[in-house]
Amino acid sequence: MFLTDAQLEAYDRDGFLILRDLVSPEEVRLVKQGLARACQVQDDRVIREKSSGSARMVYGMHELDGPTGCEATEGLARSTRLLQAARDVLHDEAYLFHIKANLKEAMTGEIWQWHQDFGYWRTDGLSEPRLVTTMLMLDRATELGGCLYFVPGSHKDGTIEAPFDDKTTSVGIWTLSQEQMTDLVKRRGEPVPVAGEPGTVAMFHPDLVHGSGHNMSTHARWQMYFVYNAVSNVMQPVAKPRPSYKANRKNIPLQIRAKESILEPAE
Ligand code: SIN
Ligand code: MN
């Protein structure tokens, strides 16, 4: 176990858990270096903003033989801090469903409308929301800078049927309508900002309603999302499977690396 019983209770109650100073500044620096390199790559793994053309999302940083691969990111995904914490929440062995970086450049980084991640992932053939997202702040995340917001306890609503929006940004998502969001906030309370220093981690449930605004600040907001699926949450076949860097179907348990710090070679 990496998480305490009290932390697991808080996760079940709120649908998220914040772990401050979990990743060291030097480790964050290495991951950012890999991400800066990956952003330059011309590949479908890099999705750009509609208006500015700068990188909005980068997939596949754990694929060491892929165009966006980064040893530091892959290594961190197998650290006790991230992997054992994910196993604790899932009560199972875990594997990487995907890793993505979400970038919001100063002044131009765009909105993520209110949504639940499982709204998308169930279309990949997943029947149960037995996944967890472990988000790592690579920059200081502030309200002005478009930090994430969570609606505490909203995961208890299950997966809400929401309309698909592929117009607002370069990434289509099942977005809660104004009526759905108003009703949710009335029942669950106002969204809370997920602000913090680089190295802060937020673990959250696939049915937790979340979103974030435009980056109005003069600082970039880069974040890395490690998404783990429970190995027993087997994916069913679908007509048009997404690429494995977005929806990995190989449920082989991930092993914890020998050295905890990614500053040291893995084995
Ligand atoms: C997401 O929900 O996948 C992204 C939200 C964000 O990075 O602000
Ligand atoms: Mn999301």
Characterise the protein shown here.
- The two termini are 22 Å apart.
- The longest helix has 14 residues, at 25-38.
- The strands form three sheets. The chain has a seven-stranded antiparallel beta sheet with strand order 1-11-6-13-4-3-2.
- A hairpin with a 7-residue loop joins strand 8 (164-165) and strand 9.
- The relative contact order is 0.24.
- The chain has 267 residues and is an alpha+beta fold.
- The chain has six helices and 13 strands.
- Helix 2 (25-38) crosses helix 3 (71-77).
- The mean pLDDT is 97.
- It is 21% helix and 23% strand.
- It has helices spanning 5-14, 25-38, 71-77, 80-90, 118-121, 178-188, and strands at 16-19, 46-48, 55-59, 94-104, 112-115, 131-137, 148-150, 164-165, 173-174, 192-194, 201-204, 210-212, 221-230.
- It has one domain: q2cbj1_9rhob like domain (Jelly Rolls, Sandwich).
- Manganese (II) ion binds at residues 115, 117, 210.
